Amino acid sequence: MTTLIPILGDQLSLDLSALDDADRADARLLMMEVADETTYVRHHKKKIAYIFSAMRHHAEALRADGWTLDYVTLDDPDNSGSFTGEIARAVARHAPERIVVTEAGEWRVAAMLEAWETIFGLPVEIRADDRFIASLAEFATWIEGRKQLRMEYFYRDMRRKTGLLLDDGKPAGGEWNYDSENRKPAQASLLMPRPLAFVPDGITTDVLSLIAERFPDNPGTLDRFDYAVTRTDALEQQGYFLKHALPCFGDYQDAMLTGERFLWHSILSPYINSGLLDPLDLCRAAEAEYRAGRAPLNSVEGFIRQIIGWREYMRGIYWSQGPDYVERNFLEAHRPLPGFYWTGDTDMHCLKEAIGQTLETAHAHHIQRLMVTGNFALLIGADPRQVHQWYLEVYLDAYEWVELPNTLGMSQFADGGLLGSKPYASSGAYINRMSDYCRHCRYDVKQRTGPDACPFNALYWDFLVRNEDKLARNPRLAMPYRTWAKMDATTQADIRAQAAQTLASLDAAPGYG
Ligand code: FAD
Ligand code: DLZ
Ligand code: SF4
């Protein structure tokens, strides 16, 4: 009985659930590079290159593992351009009795998979993606009946479920969470770890030429492509991180430095999200560093929390909220995202750094995404849907299930507080505390008004006042609203005029494209 097993671009794991119990003799695997997937947003050039190269290498690994696999390249003259079109061609080629597939990573693709049974008149088995720790059904049960969703409680359940960092059922060191120890600013140092650079092989070089030819106008550059594209290389980066960066990961988790793109972060999200690395194995390896006394608890707990806590929680939220989650716009924000998000051409140094490195590498770390680019978009009232589209385009690790809740929920507060108890809005003071950006900036982070004032400052107060009807009752914002109320009328008017001037200049500047 021939079984057709499609493997999508973020399912690059040898032990994928769709392959469980499949028989190598009669299974036909299918991997497809399709135009639809490359164009639903204008992906960063490096993102498409990474996915295609990792897919092509994974196809080789599957064949070496004894599977029979059809691989359809983007430039195949018969390529239909869509997943469903390629399934149709594969059904015609192999006349399978059934299709088995692991569930998709976004609503758009999930709808395609669900339509196949009717379109092809074949049984289609859609299997749970067991690379995640919590199944979707488990998350649905977890949120049932809860008035307030908080990641922390979900995270503790995931610690109990996996046994990670537990001593006799109690959290290692006595606390579940060591986040309060993880807020140190960093100093530039020659000893700082740098992620490994992998030299492109023949497969990657071919892919880079294809992307250069097909997507010349997409954001970003293909220059210096040095990401891992195989499991072996991704494991090498994992090992490097555990040894050289994990020990300081906690201390400097929120730090930002000019010219330092990676600090003590792992740069493993692209590999975890596409399937080259297994998140639970990675967490167990991180725990082993703590148990062996090579990495401190605040670092290891912080790292594990990002993966079994935040990552899993984001996925649960995405699927629990339905396909309409993307429409939410609690703050009714409608300003277009400024054009400099696609060029980095701004004199605000923090934004120039975060966007510049994003366009170069298709990566920025969490605090750059949240407190620089995300914060600025929030303060100016950018349309959350456009902000979402930007994040989905420009990051190598961006798949909708993880990108959307991070952007729309955590960063833009567009879901009204489902994901965070208050908006991540801040003035320049936060950026100044956590980085050296302000020292290199033409603006003065201490000034609120005047030609040299840091734009974040007036925009922060303006954001609070503009959204007073929606935010003033939030107890976590009581303090800033009190501070605003204590300012005299002239100061308030000056601040609002300063913000209005900045917003007007953004509106007058060139937009997307
Ligand atoms: P590290 O700092 O080394 O963290 C370790 C791992 O923890 C990451 O590899 C990742 O798998 C996980 N992790 C950490 N934070 C989060 C989080 N908030 N949500 C989910 N997983 C997390 N992450 C993505 O994987 N894809 C996205 O598209 C994405 N979009 C984001 C958009 C915004 C607006 C924000 C604020 C955050 C976004 N994140 C996204 C989360 C986070 O920024 C990245 O996971 C992280 O920067 C990846 O770099 P790293 O591997 O060096 O992470
Ligand atoms: C993001 C992406 C891109 C650019 N191209 C492909 C592709 O050609 N083939 C493929 O299988 N997947 C691709 N992907 C990933 C998908 O768009 C999508 O995110 C996942 O299928 C969701 O599970
Ligand atoms: Fe950014 Fe303001 Fe600091 Fe300049 S002064 S780097 S604009 S926060």
TrEMBL record:
Coiled coil spans: none
One Pfam match: DPRP
Domain of life: Bacteria
SUPFAM superfamilies the UniProt entry points to: Cryptochrome/photolyase FAD-binding domain (SSF48173)
InterPro entries found in the cross-reference section: Crypto/Photolyase_FAD-like_sf, PhrB-like, Rossmann-like_a/b/a_fold, UV-DNA_repair_photolyase
Name listed for the protein in its UniProt record: Cryptochrome/photolyase family protein
Organism: Sphingomonas hylomeconis
